[in-house]
Amino acid sequence: MEFIRSVLTPSDGATAPSGPNPTLRKVRSSVNLTHATLAPSQLMTSQQAVPQGPSSNIPTQFQAGSDVPMPGTSDEAQCFSTMLPQKLVRFLSLSSFNTTERDEAVNVCDSDFVRMNVLGIGSFGKVLLVKKKDSSRLFAMKIIKKSVLKERMRARIRMERNVMALHRHPFIIKLHYAFQEEDKLYFVMDYCKGGDLYYHLHPSRNSRRSTSSFSKFVIAQLALALGHLHNHGIVYRDLKPENVLFDDQGYIKLADFGLAKGGIWEPTRGTRSVCGSLHYMAPELLLMHELGDDAEYGYAVDWWSLGVLLYEIFWGLPPWYCEKHDELVTMIKTIPLKINLKLPAPTRSFMTDLLIKDPQYRLGSAADVEEVKRHAYFERIDWQRLLAKQYAPCFTPCAAGAPEECVQNFDESFTRMPVKSSGQESGMAPCSSIPPNLADRLVHFDDFDFIINEEGTDTRAA
């Protein structure tokens, strides 16, 4: 791949990125890989370099070097500090849907919501903008077809449900309701009307922000979200621009936990299943099939993906990009990282330390998020202030005065689609028309239903 260069501006260190390849979203979908083509000896090693809602009356904007202490706390930060005991979360994230739910029966179903717009469509279903009839509150509703879920996918649905239901963190998307019908599963989540990071990396939309400040703001929040998951034994494994959402203020929410895995407490050990979006997968993950049955990887793969994402924010493409699967695998495992020397030194160092091919020396492998937070790239960031959302974001994804139901930050090819009523979704056949060989997939998901009440307590839905 030809190295992409950029002319830097004196004001913020770099111009806005050139934008992602228009076909990239299609090419780099999440995959389960079954082949890796190089020998273990070709895994490169290197030495590790020396290594943490916005208040309406706080006008200070988040900037690359700002460090102005601000008073106050937020409810979300308080929720973060009163998480479930770690041993309980460790058990729950590995087992069933029986979380901290109470036996209070609350019914919720598809007909309780008005469908407004299509926000996205995937291989397993679609995401809609919906409004709850009794409160007029907006949510994103993810609808999943049971008929396409094989046994492994059922386990991933359980993990996604548990992560969103259990973990209250300012930068992790919140699950409000989960329910099911005979042929479909429903997740009702925060509506992030700022769209996703992939949308905002397009060259036609990058003029509204400074790349240097924007990248640091986004990466710092992601580091806290990943650190929270790692502290609870969860490796994320699917960090990419499509899974980084923005609220209307410009803060991020990490979404889509179908590839997350619990019980991972070490940076280089704990699991060996090969999954993820290829452009963001770490070299050790791609070597699983070559290293034998004793090979494992751990949460260090998430820090690699963070480095890839940072690179893409600056240059519009991942550092190793190719549309041919085998060639891309070879590039990730063997081709050295190339970084434009005009980038500020702390940015180059941070990017390089995250993209060390040997996970033992990668930034974050020694002390996880605390090591990442100490890097010079984040100098002068007040982490508690960021966690409490007391920075004014460096860009606002929604125009001033935009209506609550605004969908301006979503792909028009989706939002212009007609929204069909309940039970008539395009591509979702009624139970009576599902082929007999798929009928056994229409299982009832025990303890799937979920509702969070106004006080934030998890409650079982009947």
Description of the molecule:
ATP binds at residue 150. Residues 113-378 form the Protein kinase domain. Keywords: ATP-binding, Kinase, Nucleotide-binding, Phosphoprotein, Serine/threonine-protein kinase, Transferase. The longest helix is centred in the middle third of the chain and has 21 residues, at 211-231. Helices cover 26% and strands 11% of the residues. Among the domains are: 107-191 and 405-418, Phosphorylase Kinase, domain 1 (2-Layer Sandwich), CATH 3.30.200.20; 195-388, Transferase(Phosphotransferase) domain 1 (Transferase(Phosphotransferase), domain 1, Orthogonal Bundle). α3 runs antiparallel to α4, α6 (211-231) runs antiparallel to α9 and α9 (300-315) packs across α11. The chain is globular, with a radius of gyration of 22 Å. The strands form three sheets. Strands 2-3-4-6-5-10-11 form a seven-stranded antiparallel β-sheet, covered by helices on one side. A two-stranded antiparallel sheet has the order 1-9. With 462 residues, it is an alpha+beta fold. The protein has 14 helices and eleven strands.
- N- to C-terminal distance: 54 Å
In which range does the helix fraction lie? Answer: 25-40%
Described by the principal axes of the CA atoms, the overall outline is globular
- CA radius of gyration is 22 Å
**Structure class:** alpha+beta
Strand content: 5-15%
Number of strands: 11
Q: Specify the CATH architecture of the domain at 195-388.
A: Orthogonal Bundle
Binding site for ATP: 150
Keywords: ATP-binding, Kinase, Nucleotide-binding, Phosphoprotein, Serine/threonine-protein kinase, Transferase
Pfam families: Pkinase
Family: Belongs to the protein kinase superfamily.
